[in-house]
Amino acid sequence: MKGIILAGGTGSRLHPLSLAISKQLMPVYDKPMIYYPLATLMSAGIREILIITTPQDHQLFRNLLGDGTQLGCRFDYATQEAPRGIADAFRIGRDFIGGDKVALILGDNIFYGSGLSELLKANTDPDGAIIYGYHVTNPSRYGVVNLAADGRVESIEEKPANPKSNYAIPGIYFYDNDVVSYAADLAPSRRGELEITDINKAYLQDGKLRVSILDRGTAWLDTGTFESLMQASQFVQVIEQRQGLKIGSIEETAYKMGFIGAEQLRSLAEPLRKSGYGEYLLQLIPDA
Fold first, then answer.
1. Which of 37, 111, 146, 265 is at a distance of 20 to 30 A from 68, taking alpha carbons?
2. How far apart are CA 199 and CA 186, in angstroms?
3. 125 pLDDT above the threshold of 90
4. Residue 216 burial by Cβ neighbours in a 10 Å radius (0-12, 13-18, 19+)
5. What are phi and psi of 72, to 5 degrees?
6. What does the alpha-carbon distance between residue 75 and residue 13 come to, in Å, rounded to a whole number?
7. Is residue 129 helix, strand or coil?
């Protein structure tokens, strides 16, 4: 399975902060925002990842992440000329996806929780589509999935005024290769975008959509507003200082997943020692 991070968009809800820099490059406590979704894909065992950015931010992401070889991965880059919707990622990434299955994660979504890596790994070979459900108090703000008593998907609605359930659909999706043709046939919505909800509805109509519920111990944070960005930073700070373990460290994830060895981790850590980030990475190495 390959992965795509959609890190485009104007970030208008974060203006004026995002007038000069992509919101996915802004700090969430001690790391750039994009580290978190990138670490999530890597923790699922995904090593070939396409990062879709705006044209003006393209080189900044390259400067930050390189080609991925330092992490035992391969990073490709593409640009989204205008915010044409989440499903546009599959048109942009068509050649990158090739004949493979693909996971898409939004660049401003953060996931954290015990057992999350194992859950994601279990879904990397989908026959159809796998989306996730997360219980929220305000489902009207999100895409909402309604499940029958036996777990079958009954309906999907985008920001419904009267939601049929409290299960929001967070910004991570796993698809078989049919998603490429579904996206190619997609018509823009009333707001002129290619909607991910329409992709999911197409899979649902064909009887190939499954929902995996994120349990109550999993945190899902959307960092697209001033308030949620601050809350995400506070959440990461509290967890890291309480546990002494980092959230969303791509270097640690690469090491723990076996993508790189101890010496490669050491070479990544040394330039980062003054901030304390490198010291943390060095402590992961036995007898370092």
1. 111
2. 8
3. yes
4. exposed
5. 70, 25
6. 28
7. strand
Q: Which two tokens stand for residue 83?
A: 């915010």
Residue 256 has pLDDT above 80, yes or no: yes
Q: How far apart are CA 105 and CA 259, in angstroms?
A: 20
Question: What stretches of the chain show up as alpha helix (H) in DSSP?
Answer: 35-43, 58-65, 88-92, 94-97, 116-121, 178-184, 196-205, 226-243, 250-256, 262-269, 277-283
**What is the structure's pLDDT at 233?**
97
> What's the pLDDT score for residue 43?
98
Widest CA span in the chain: 59
- Phi/psi at 158 (5° precision): -100, 115
Q: How many residues does the chain have?
A: 288
Q: What secondary structure letter does DSSP report for 247?
A: S
Tens-place pLDDT, residues 149-163:
888 999 999 889 999
pLDDT mean over 190-210: 94
* Structural domains for the chain: 2-129+169-243 (3.90.550.10)
Specify whether the CB–CB gap between 236 and 219 falls below 8 A.
no
Report pLDDT for 288.
Answer: 58
Find, among 268, 247, 285, the residue nearest to 72 by Cα: 268
